[in-house]
Each structure stands twice: as C-alpha cells, then as structure tokens.
Amino acid sequence: MSKQVAVILSGCGVQDGAEIYETTLTLLRLDQLGLGYRCFAPDIEQHHVVDHRRGEVADGERRNVLTESARLARGEIAPLDELEADDFDAIILPGGFGVAKNLSNFAEAGDGMQVLDELTEALSGFHEARKPIGLMCISPVLVPRLLGPGIAVTVGHDPGVAGAISAMGGLHRSCGVEDIVVDFENRVVTTPAYMLATRISEAATGIFKLVDRIDELMDL
Questions:
Q1: Looking at beta carbons, which pairs linking 1-4 to residues 24 or more positions away fall under 8 Å?
Q2: Percentages helix, strand, coil for the chain, rounded to the nearest 5?
Q3: What residues does 182 pair with on adjacent strands?
Q4: What would the pLDDT profile of 157-197 be if each residue is shown by its tens digit?
Q5: Integer Rg of the chain from CA
Q6: In 3-state terms, what secondary structure has residue 107?
Q7: Are 22 and 94 in contact (CB under 8 A)?
Q8: What is the C-alpha separation between 37 and 19, in angstroms, rounded?
Q9: Is the model's pLDDT at 1 over the cut of 90?
C-alpha cells in the first residue's frame, strides 16, 4: 500500500479560501511520486466571500468551506473532523487567505490569533506521532499555535508575518521562493510559495521540493 498524505483545504480561491495553484501543484507532485492523498476541510461557514475579479468582499453572500473546497478536490473530500492521523503518513496545508480567515483568525487578530479547534486536534496527532507536516504560503504562521514554540518555519521575507511568528514563540527563517526550510527535529517543512511567487513556475519549484522532502521524511 502506498504512503498516504492528508491535505487540508480552507475553501477555494486565494482571497477567501485555499490557493488554487498551490493546491493543484501539491496534488500533482503527490501523484507524480505515487503517493496517495485525501483532502479534508472544515464544515463551517466562510469568514466572508470575496469577488476575485474585483478584489472586494461580496456583501450578503455566504459559502461553506467544505463545499467550496470540494471544487478543488473534484468532490473527493471529507470533513476535517473525520481526519485521523493513524490513517495517514503525513499532512500538508496549502496556503491562501482561507488559512488566515477560516482556519484561524490571523487576518484580524495577528499574533493574538486563535486556530480552529478541529485543525489543532488533527495536527496534534501527526505531531505527536512524529509524522511529517508540510505548510506553505501563509499557513506556516499557524505553527506556533498548532505545534508549540521554537519550531523553524518560513513565509519568505514578509516582516509583518515573520514578526507575528516570532511574537507567538516561533522561529522564522528567511527563504527564497524556490527553496524550503526544514525543522528536522519536529519534522516540519515550509516554503514561501505565493507569499513571494510572481509566476506559477516559481511556486512549483518550492512546492515540489516541499513534497519531495515530505516523501523522504516519511521513510525516516
């Protein structure tokens, strides 16, 4: 049986959900490596809906995070509260502002943020079992709250987000768009992706490196 990776989504669309390119590149690389995967998302209402053509909040419109995430997963998705770490060998969180709006309230609260309880419960099982955890784009900001202080991560070079990570007890490492940061002790792998990427090919290089390293760590 092939190794199995859980992928957590936060909606569909960079401004209010999971980043579409980051998610697609992650699933592509998992498939290229012959790794099985299953997508999960919380069954909750989105923080808000953004008109991606105008970049404005669509007042009065409401959407469900699980339902929107199903668009990215082609319907093959399960509620986050059904995720069991025992069933998987690793877990990956693509970015997108859904991480900061739906999986947490970082977009509003900054370093005073709270993380969705379902996500904390899911990630704690992987961390306790020393199973690899990959995070990209804005999602590494969750690490100090999800996994504890002193874990090295990257969001690239963003001083505001890096400062928030440090304020929460995390360790931020500057990193180029095409590279990764690995905390070997905690088995956490991060890459900036669209925190820095200006082209999909730039994001792909770092994301592929992240998935490749997650694959390697699953064998250790």
A1: 1/36, 2/34, 2/35, 2/36, 3/35, 3/36, 3/89, 3/90, 3/215, 3/218, 4/35, 4/36, 4/37, 4/38, 4/87, 4/88, 4/89
A2: 40, 20, 40
A3: 189
A4: 999 999 999 999 999 999 999 999 999 999 999 999 999 99
A5: 16
A6: helix
A7: yes
A8: 18
A9: no
Placement of tokens 């998302």 in the chain: 41
Q: In the block, which residue shows the tokens 């859980």?
A: 6
pLDDT digits (tens, 9 = 90+) for 3-37: 999 999 999 999 999 999 999 999 999 999 999 99
Which residues are part of the catalytic machinery? 137
End-to-end CA distance of the chain: 17
Alpha helices in the chain (DSSP H): 20-32, 65-72, 98-101, 106-109, 117-128, 143-147, 159-167, 200-218
Give me 63's structure tokens.
Answer: 């959407």
Tokens of 90: 């690793």
Structural domains for the chain:
4-218 (3.40.50.880)
- Which residues are within 8 A (CB) of 118 and not within 5 positions of it... i.e. 6 or more apart? 42, 80, 81
- Residue that the structure tokens 């994301």 belong to: 207
Laid out side by side, the sheet with 4-8 consists of: 77-79, 36-41, 4-8, 90-93, 133-136, 188-191, 181-183
